[in-house]
Backbone:
């Protein structure tokens, strides 16, 4: 049941990110909602569920966004490795950890897109892309993390019930 819920949430986030948010840029950038939901899911639910949900998010974004099909899936795949940071328990606050992980993940995500453009033969202006695309998207995505984190947390009632039974 939880994977159907995750798939529906990720598809809604991908549709919102691709169809609505480009009309309302913040600081010239739009947040990567799918990435935020994926990071929140991995932080709250762990790497085991991340192995299933992260590819779902990459596929949803790839189907809706209009980018080459495998690029979105490739760009979100490092999230599974970042789940190890959660296991290290560097901070008590999962919200703070999510914000930092979204910032880093957005940087990695946008860099992977730039590398794939360069590999396809496109001219990439690295410094301009960093300052005008990668950095603003990372900042705006970090700002949108707390509300989406709390939404995923609220949807994780089964996880809270299991923790309370321990």
Residues:
């Amino acid at each position: 049941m939880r994977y159907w819920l995750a798939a529906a949430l990720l598809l809604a986030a991908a549709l919102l990110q691709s169809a609505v948010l480009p009309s309302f840029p913040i600081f010239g950038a739009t947040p990567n909602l799918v990435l935020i939901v994926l990071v929140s899911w991995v932080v709250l639910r762990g790497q085991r569920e991340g192995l299933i949900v992260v590819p779902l998010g990459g596929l949803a974004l790839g189907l809706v966004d209009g980018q080459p099909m495998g690029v979105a899936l490739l760009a979100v795949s490092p999230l599974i490795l970042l789940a190890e940071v959660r296991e290290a328990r560097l901070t008590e606050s999962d919200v703070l950890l999510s914000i930092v992980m979204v910032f880093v993940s957005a940087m990695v995500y946008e860099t992977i897109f730039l590398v794939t453009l360069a590999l396809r033969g496109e001219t990439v202006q690295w410094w301009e892309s960093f300052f005008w695309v990668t950095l603003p998207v990372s900042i705006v995505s970090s700002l949108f993390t707390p509300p989406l984190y709390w939404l995923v947390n609220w949807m994780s009632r089964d996880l809270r019930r299991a923790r309370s039974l321990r």
In short: The chain has a mean pLDDT of 88. DSSP finds eight helices and no strands in the chain. The longest helix spans residues 126-155.
